[in-house]
Amino acid sequence: MVVLSLPISGQGQYILTGSSDRSIRLYNPAKSSGSSVGSGLVQTYSAHGYEVLDISVTEDNARFASVGGDKQVFLWDVATARTLRRWSGHFGRVNCVEFGGEEGSVVVSGSFDATVRLWDCKSQSTKPIQVFEDSKDSVSSLHVLGHEIVTGSVDGKLRLYDLRMGMVFVDTIGHPITSVQQTNDGNAVLVSTLDSVIRLMDKSNGQMLQSYKGHTNTDYRIRSCLGLADSIVISGSEGGMIYVWDFLEGKLVETLTAHDGKVASAVSCCSPRKEWASAGTDGKNPSPNFRDVDY
Known about the structure:
Elements: E1 3-5, E2 15-19, E3 23-27, E4 41-46, E5 52-57, E6 63-68, E7 72-77, E8 82-88, E9 94-100, E10 106-111, E11 116-120, E12 130-132, E13 139-145, E14 148-153, E15 157-162, E16 167-172, E17 177-182, E18 188-193, E19 197-202, E20 208-213, E21 224-227, E22 232-235, E23 241-246, E24 252-257, E25 264-270, E26 275-280, E27 289-292
Antiparallel strand pairs: 1-2, 2-3, 3-4, 5-6, 6-7, 7-8, 9-10, 10-11, 11-12, 13-14, 14-15, 15-16, 17-18, 18-19, 19-20, 21-22, 22-23, 23-24, 25-26, 26-27
């Protein structure tokens, strides 16, 4: 089993994992012993017929959205473990999903079909409220911050959709993008690519502000993230290591062994608790690794 997504709830009480076995699992890391299989497992959510590639959780932790090989977007109720909506419209697997709008009223999805689609959670309509078709290849990652949507594509382009202005801004990275995340202040975007480099890009002019190197990422979708109030950058690696860099200096501050030499596919950081989680392709334990960080 390969864990492909693991968002942490706002205050770090829970972790959701999406996996190649088509299941979504909810963990309480405080109850995890770190040694037994399934330790800390609270709930399992089953509806997907294919691998689960991404999950996004609302700020109140009441709902989450999931996507994968089904070509659908699923909206779930956390407490009842039931699907509230199932939106169809994508023509290929759906790689990424995030909530947007007030109180998570909109779900944004990106797909192998090279489109980004927006879905209204408050409406009973099954059709998207907006579709972006600018990408020339698979949309691999996206991040929503306020009225802006940033997307990364296999075509090597970073796209910023400003919904208020009705405009799209494009920066050419030059390598397939696997992960994007905007900084908390909204001034820059962290971009992971398949040349084993993570770049910090200035949103205002498209210039590279910093780069982070040392890990290996040439074949798989590996996600990076910002942590500790945007003071560190964390990423997995195809060699199973976790790498941590200083955000401003780009200096590697720590490497950690996490997944027995297998691909460390995803990381998430909970800044309030100074903890982070990682998941990978080792398949030995469905519980994610959960560790303290303090740099």
